[in-house]
Amino acid sequence: MSLLFEMLLIGLAVASITMTISKSNIMEYSRTQVSKLGWWAEELIHCPYCLSHWFAFGVVWWKLGLLPLEHFILVSFGVVTIASLASLGIAQLFLTLNKIDLEEIE
Q1: Cβ 31 vs Cβ 22: under 8 Å
Q2: Do residues 76 and 56 touch, judged by C-beta distance below 8 A?
Q3: What is the pLDDT of residues 45-83, one digit of tens each?
Q4: Cβ atoms 89, 96 nearer than 8 A
Q5: Which helix (DSSP H) or strand (DSSP E) does residue 2 occupy?
Q6: Taking the model in full, what pTM does it have?
Q7: Under the phi-then-psi rule, with left for phi > 0, alpha for psi from -120 to 50, and beta for the rest, what region is 65?
Q8: Which stretches does DSSP call E strand in 1-106?
Q9: How far apart are CA 11 and CA 101, in angstroms?
Q10: 101: confidence class by pLDDT, cuts 50, 70, 90
Q11: Most CB contacts within 10 A, which of 32, 33, 80, 103?
């Protein structure tokens, strides 16, 4: 599998994970608990972009192994960029679905 394809898959997975953790109703209790650790934890747990860096670093290291440092950094930030773009799509989908739900109620 090519590196670009793996980066795309990892980026999509990171976007899904970080949006679920930082924005979904099902994770609200966990976010509240993590927020009690301090302002930095609260910011991290509520920001999919911030959270995506940590997940990207972890998944790139886990999936691709020990790369030279410069490759690790480039691949990780490439994954963050892909995840950020995918998060925009996920956020738009949430907004569209919520709008449809609200219209059906009215």
Answers
A1: yes
A2: yes
A3: 999 899 999 999 999 999 887 778 888 899 999 999 999
A4: no
A5: none
A6: 0.80
A7: left
A8: none
A9: 29
A10: low
A11: 80
SS3 content of the chain, % helix, strand, coil (to 5): 90, 0, 10
Q: Which residue ranges make up each domain of the chain? A: 3-105
* Residue range 2-50, pLDDT digits in tens: 888 999 999 999 999 999 999 888 999 999 999 999 999 999 999 989 9
**Are 47 and 78 spatial neighbours (Cβ–Cβ below 8 Å)?**
no
> Torsion-angle region of residue 38: left (phi > 0), alpha (psi -120 to 50) or beta?
left
Q: Which residues contact 84 (CB under 8 A, 6 or more apart)?
A: 15, 49, 52
Angle among Cα 36, 37, 41 to the nearest 5 degrees reads: 100
